[in-house]
Amino acid sequence: MRFVLPKGRLLKGSLEVLRKAGYDVQKPGKRRLIEGFNGNEVLIARAFDVPVYVEHGVDVGISGSDVVEERKSDVFVPLELPFGKCRLSLAMPRERVVSPEEMDGYRVATKYENITREYFSKLGVEVEILKLSGSVELAPKVGIADAIVDIVETGETLRANGLVEVEKAMDVSAQLLVNRISQKTKFEEINELVFSIKEVIENEL
């Protein structure tokens, strides 16, 4: 089987849960992005690209539910995993807080264009979305946006940049993703993986 795991904050938990489930995956060595193990392969990719790899042919991946939702990738999600828990929230400068319903015409900076659009659309509020790739919390600070929608874990980054969390858009956690064709062609292997991980999760709770 081929696995794709995300660089960054979810990598440690991903490797850990797979190892506990009996898959001796190793993080690829320096400058290597693919590593073989016991006849399987592990790829390391940008977190935002993991669902795309799984949708288009890699058998199994681990990704945040925020990325799966944003990418709208056609993948099978058999399990929610017990790490990577945080939330996607709307935040604004402390001195200029208004309710989301009052944000008509506001400019919102985010990496999550689709989720943000849906969030405001449900409220019947029209906002201008400014898509950024990183350091979203700088946008209100330099005056190019009125608010942001971004991942919040402890809230420390927000506080350090003079922002406050106004409302949660969605809860986020790591998820196991399976390619829809692999789900059929490698049914037994995939099933074994899912049940092994499920057992790990149940034993830890």
What does this structure look like?
There is one protein chain. With 205 residues, the protein is α/β, with parallel strands linked by helices. It folds into 2 domains: 2-84 and 173-204, Periplasmic binding protein-like II (D-Maltodextrin-Binding Protein, domain 2, 3-Layer(aba) Sandwich); 86-172, Periplasmic binding protein-like II (D-Maltodextrin-Binding Protein, domain 2, 3-Layer(aba) Sandwich), CATH 3.40.190. 33% of the residues lie in helices and 30% in strands. The chain has 8 helices and 11 strands. The strands form 2 sheets. A 6-stranded mixed β-sheet has the order 2-3-1-4-11-5. Strand 7 (107-110), helix 4 and strand 8 form a beta-alpha-beta unit. The longest helix is centred in the C-terminal third of the chain and has 18 residues, at 187-204. The model has no long low-confidence stretch (mean pLDDT 94).
Short description:
By secondary structure, this protein is an alpha/beta fold.
Provide the low-confidence segments as ranges.
none
Q: What is the H/E order?
A: EHEEHEHEEEHEHEHEEHH
Number of domains: 2
By CATH reckoning, the class of the largest domain would read Alpha Beta
- Overall, the morphology is elongated
Kindly provide the radius of gyration, computed on alpha-carbon positions and rounded to a whole number of angstroms.
Answer: 19 Å
Number of helices: 8
Q: In the CATH hierarchy, what is the architecture of the largest domain at level 2?
A: 3-Layer(aba) Sandwich
- Looking at CATH, which topology of the largest domain would you report? D-Maltodextrin-Binding Protein, domain 2
Structural class: alpha/beta
Q: What's the rounded overall pLDDT mean? A: 94
Number of strands: 11
Helix content: 25-40%
Query: What's the name of the CATH homologous superfamily of the largest domain?
Result: Periplasmic binding protein-like II
Major sheet: order of its strands?
Answer: 2-3-1-4-11-5
Distance between the termini: 28 Å
Instruction: Give the percentage of residues in beta strands.
Output: 25-35%
Largest sheet, in brief, is: 6 strands, mixed
